[in-house]
Every structure is written in structure tokens, then in C-alpha cells.
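BUG: 3D viewer hangs when loading the predicted structure for this chain

Environment: internal workstation, default settings.
Expected: structure renders.
Actual: progress bar stalls at 90%.

Input used:
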Amino acid sequence: MRWQVHSEEPLYTDRWLDVRVADVELPDGRHLDHRLIRTASGAGAVVTNGQGRVLLIWRHRFITDTWGWEIPTGRIEEGEEPIVAAAREVEEETGWRPGPMRPLLYTQPSNGISDSAQHVFRADGARHIGSPAEPWEAERVEWVPLTDVRRLIDKRDIVCGTTMSALLYLLIEG
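C-alpha cells produced before the viewer hung:
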């Protein structure tokens, strides 16, 4: 039941994304034009403080016009290792420098339309080094109790797929 890709043509490309149309043959021989989005991979981190709290940012997403809690994440720059990008994003978005990090999970949050890949790491501890690099990244930066995660998901205060996957994974990991 593998779909065969016969060609891909760009529809729009800039430094952030590459929107394409692919000529795809379905297993029954039919063809369809399938839109897809190619993007750079991202990296982020779940940072805990040893007191049952996780470092989150409260931010507005204009595309959905919603507010929500998210782990710090961002684009992996060319030549940058995912773990380095994750640590950089934590510092830039929160003003906290994470302690030693280890892999937590890898996810492709929208693999039906995009090749977006997210590398998520875990750090047990962080040191405050100052204010976030860009104040527009988050309305607030807080240490949120892990026991609140389920309630925040139920209230739709956590809706970001990568954040939700990472926090739920953390909860089952223990």
C-alpha cells in the first residue's frame, strides 16, 4: 500500500518553507496531485526543576488566534546539531540555560502534509541567565507544575502537538 511519487514541483519557496505539489500514484493506480510542505527540522526541550515543575512559555499563535503553553522550540540552523539548537532555543525563549540534556523523543507532528521533524530533549535543571533574547517570543515564562499538565490539556491551554507529545511522554517516562 505504498504510494509512489512520480514528481514534485515547487509552488512557493522561501527560507522558511517550501510548498510543493507531488504527482502521487495510489496503490490502485489512480494519480492525484498532493500538496506538501517541506521545512527545516526543529528542536526543543522539556526542562524540569527537580520540584515537579516544567519550564513553559505562554504565547499567542496568530495563525489560530489562540494562547497556549509550549515548551521552547525552534528551527535547527544549517550545520547545527539538534541538541545544540534545543539548548539555544531554551536560552533565547526563556532566559534559562538548561542543564545537561538527553534525547526525549522525535516526532513528525503533521506527516500527512509536511516533512516537519521535531527533536525534543530533556534537561533536569536550568540556571537563570537573564531575560529572554526576544520579548515577543512569549507573554510569560513560568515553571508550571507537572501535575497541571492534564488539566491544561483538557482546558486547551496546551494544544501544540509537539508540546503535548513531549509532556505526555515525560509523564509516562516518570
